[in-house]
Amino acid sequence: MDSNPSGAQGGSSNASGAAIADTTTDVAVLGLTVDYLVDPIGIDDRTPSLGWRLVSAEHSVRQSAYQVRAASSPQDLELDRPDLWDSGKTASAQQTDIVYAGRPPAAGEEVFWQVRVWTGDDRVSAWSPVARWEMGLLEPNDWTAQWISDSTPSASLPIFAHRFTVPTQGRIERARLYVSGLGLYEPRLNGRKVGADVLTPSVTDYRKRTLYRTYDVSEHLRAGNNVVGVMVGNGFFNVPEREGRYWESVTWKSGLGGSGETVRLSGEPKVIAQLEIRYADGTVQRVSSDASWRVDDGPIEFSGYYGGEDYDARRWQSNWDHPDGDHSHWRYAALASDTPAVLSAQFEPAVAEAQRLTAVELTEPEPGVYVFDFGTCFVGWPCIEVEGPAGTRVALVPGWYLDDGRVSQSGMVGWVPNVLVADHYTLSGDGVETWHPRFGYHGFRFLEVRGLPTAPSLSSVTGIVVRAATGATAEFECSAELLNTIYRIADRSLQSAMVSPTMPTDPNREKAGWQADRDVALSGVYRYDFAAYNQAMLREVFDAQRGDGDLQGIVPDPTGFWYIGDTNWTGAPIVQAYESYRRYGDAAPLRRHYPAMRQYFQLLRSREKDGIYPAGEFSEGYFGDWMYPGQHWQKPFDPDNAHFTAPETTVTWGSWRIAVAMAGIAQALDRTDDAHEFGRQAEEIAAAYHREFFDPATATYANGTQTATAIALDMGAPPRDLRDAVLAALVENIRESGNHLNAGMIGLLAIVRVLTDEGRHDVLYDVAVETSYPSYGYWLEHGATSLPESWEWTNREGVADLNILGGLTSWFTQGLAGIRQEPTAIAFDRVRIAPAIVGSLTSAAATIQTVRGEITSRWHRDGTAATVKVSIPANSTATIVVPLLRKDAELTASDDAQLIDRDERSATYRTGSGTWTFEQR
Prior knowledge:
The chain is α+β, with helices and mostly antiparallel strands. Strands 15, 23, 24, 28, 29, 30, 31, 34, 35, 36 and 37 form an 11-stranded mixed β-sheet that branches.
């Protein structure tokens, strides 16, 4: 159900924090979030969604009511003066998506808040610790700053600086820097980089929206002279042509690089920055970018989002961003033309350095050519430490593969001949120098270094992994190291896409947000906290919506050159929106985008013919079951390949998934009539699929591929009396194929969903441990350190780091560990734990951090004895299905676990929150 958007008070209430007759409970209220962020600053949502966790050592803790209060200062809360909002005691078990309904805060205003809850026995908790949020700049007139650019553009990227004075008298209460730069920027203040984020701002369609970030710079300022500076890079905003450097896939409009035209030149780099210093006496000092700022040529000579970065350290001006720096010879900035239409706060987690990798091997295949092997594919930067004469130019060439010991860029530069992805560093000659690129990224494992003045050591180069700074929220391990390795390489490829909310899945050739790729990579995988990331993705998707209501399959896609009609790509964001709601309970983006979602779905239905969605050719933007075994670029749709599935089947499944998601979204928003209608339409699509494609002679669908049959089962297309036969046909196909999943990214998702739902863990286990082609084990035996794009990958060509065929890993958590939500549950309020003790495994364990708290499921067996241990967070209930190793096994359970069923294969219990242990002998 939709949360309480009005904040209306319910149940018994006491608006103040004064003593209430209720007795107290030991439940602690912790983990307060605002729009699923912890104590955010610079947000522009005036009615954010609030949430919290309950922590208790007791069993079966349930929340029956809550009270939220908000004030202008922590002191006001301490004195029981919630001047901004008091919800009163509100009868509700809801602890996510509680919409703030107090006085709308102004730009830059801080809000301090806390919450307490009542449990089912009407005992009240203590007030939570005080949390906070702070608004950013909300309206155009909140900005006194102006966009500025270089008044005399040159080949080098500009650097901007401005000196200002902080009074020696007056205590600074807080200082905020609001800043954006196109395409990417790095803010600096008094000789220091501001913030840990990189590759900022997130990629958007800059014609529609540009993002700014807010930085707390209170500790950066000093009395007297100060200097604020900004470096800029081209990023995705401005992709210039340079002979010999790769730039092809930003737009295919330029003829795959053949026309020689600039790929997408959106304009000169530009900056907007506004520093606000608030003093204890209430005064505010503003320092705003305008034509009085100074600009000069910086050390970055070339900045290509695809082709790399060239940096001349001789051009670095020491102290340029320091109060002692001399800007007298710099030119004045110009007010920028063609400025972005909308400036919005970037609320999603920024990209930051996540890890540093040390090379595991150093070779010299040719004199003066050194190759570093980092041992794994990753996305990020090379970082070099070097000493030598001024003017020495060092080339850094990344790649996934080696060819006769040298780096090969096969799979990185598409079909464009005679181009290179490379970074170049020219030494200043000033002792030991350390450098890495700033304004782009690469996917690579190997790095070829040329031009070094002396032979390097293994530690001369490190690899910097960059990704969104969002926390890991799931872990998995089991007794089979092969499965653990599959989980790790899938995780590595997922991280490699975490450089923007639309998650560009190819880190080199395209860097484009293919939405089905994002969908299959995240479906059923709880590895990271994507709550804010998903909201940002929807912002970009609906910014890009076409006038007729259609959605884009690539987001952002500024040229719109390649129209995509495949529903699994265009409709993926709606499916993800509903799955995100089910995981986090966040209805705010559903409320915000529902009219646009509805318009899109109505357009899809108008294109169907008797419930079947018509599909076109690959050249028309239909991809079908992309990357099925044996698929080749030269002939992506190959009816002669036994594993090829007609795209009419997969796009119809896509249409069905969208209908199911729309029904769930409508239900969440209390749009009951729409929910019933969309549900009816989903049933209509499934029935049409059965009518059109079922083959009664084989109990399969279409041409009998695993994909065509699995998506029928996933839709519930077979009538009840045929379902067992259809499932048996799917299993038989897999078994006769040598326990291989002969499917691409769409079919793989459907097959794993169906077999998990049907409890055929035996089949999935045999698939998981297979090592012959096509399988995960086959990839690993051929040297994979991340998930490749294609089953044909053999460590020689193609994209080596792309999470579109990782669908099996959802089974590790949902099947082997058995952690799932009940079908109609929201935000894990009702959990189902049904672990699979299968194959030769002796143990498995998984942990998921949910918005309610931690869920764990672990099991271990020794012969005919086994232990299952489960933890459920407060305010959740669980159904726990314990698999029996023998039908007559003696089973003991924790006190309070209610046995509700037992048969020869399992025992089913109902529990509340807490830790529960089940032992069988």
